[in-house]
Design brief:
about 10% strand, alpha/beta
């Protein structure tokens, strides 16, 4: 496969963009049209060009820890957590794989030190693992101590888009399969049906598929958005979720934290205050986790 030189790609972009822009303007005067095409199609970085000079920036690999996932079993992580990740049919995290340094630091801060954190790292750097592994590890320890099903929401995951909520299904399904129906999750948004087919629920013991099952036996992990969370706090039919979760909420995850700006940030802050009251917990009872690929600063920072 031959890759075009950067200069050729830059020239092609300038040519296509200038033509598209002039076409959109649609000047009726032929002389003006010709002049605009010549000015806009000037080489990148030259006066009048639509493009600045191209900038090439190297991408460096993320640093890996001097240990493997398997080596953390029995120390930082419960053995069943490592087994669940290693045995996953998809999104597998092999026990022989070393985590990234920012993942290990987040696990230590969240799991061992019980602190809130902001994780800011590039796209594809495993930010989800930074918070999901410690939360699963906490639930794994509870499942090991109690063979029964864990009931009541302990972790709220807030995503700004339904597509991001749906993207977590495969990963959560794979990583919770180890515990059967003892460690469950629910994707709660406007597309969640009131009642699902019985066969569909049986085929997914880990996932609570509908609102009826969610209200009857809330799972420890609830993946939702701010709008549905608002409804959950005020709708009488969702009151059983809050009753079963009183005093149990331990984690609130805000993904894409940079998207909460201005009045939207104020609204989410006030919503979370109401969440704490509704779940009958204090800020000291909950670990807050925010993630973003576009916030500058350290990869893992205490709140």
């Amino acid at each position: 496969m031959k890759i075009a030189p950067l200069t050729q790609l830059s020239d092609d972009l300038v040519t296509r963009l200038s033509r598209a822009y002039v076409s959109n303007l649609a000047p009726s005067n032929p002389a003006l049209r010709k002049h605009l095409l010549e000015r806009f199609a000037a080489p990148a970085g030259s006066p009048g060009s639509l493009f600045a000079s191209p900038v090439v920036q190297g991408k460096f690999p993320y640093l890996t820890a001097e240990t493997t996932l398997g080596a953390l079993a029995g120390d930082l992580l419960h053995p069943s957590t490592v087994a669940a990740l290693d045995e996953a049919t998809s999104s597998r995290f092999s026990r022989d794989t070393p985590p990234y340094t920012h993942q290990l630091e987040a696990w230590q801060r969240l799991g061992r030190e019980k602190k809130s954190v902001i994780v800011t790292s590039g796209t594809g750097s495993g930010k989800t693992e930074c918070f999901m592994v410690p939360i699963l590890d906490d639930l794994a320890r509870q499942a090991a101590a109690n063979r029964g099903q864990l009931v009541g929401v302990q972790a709220l995951f807030l995503y700004p888009l339904n597509a991001l909520i749906a993207s977590q299904r495969e990963r959560l399904h794979a990583w919770t399969e180890h515990w059967g129906d003892r460690v469950r999750f629910c994707l709660y948004n406007g597309e969640t049906p009131d009642v699902s087919r019985h066969a569909e629920q049986l085929n997914s013991l880990q996932q609570v598929m509908d609102r009826k099952a969610l209200r009857a036996s809330p799972p420890p992990m609830l993946v939702t958005n701010a709008t549905m969370l608002e409804y959950l706090l005020v709708r009488p039919q969702d009151a059983p979720i809050l009753r079963a979760s009183k005093g149990k909420l331990k984690y609130i995850v805000l993904d894409e934290a940079h998207s909460y700006l201005g009045s939207q940030a104020a609204e989410i802050a006030l919503l979370l205050r109401r969440v704490l009251q509704a779940f009958d917990v204090t800020p000291e009872d909950v670990q807050f986790i925010a993630t973003s690929a576009t916030i500058e600063g350290k990869q893992s920072t205490d709140l």
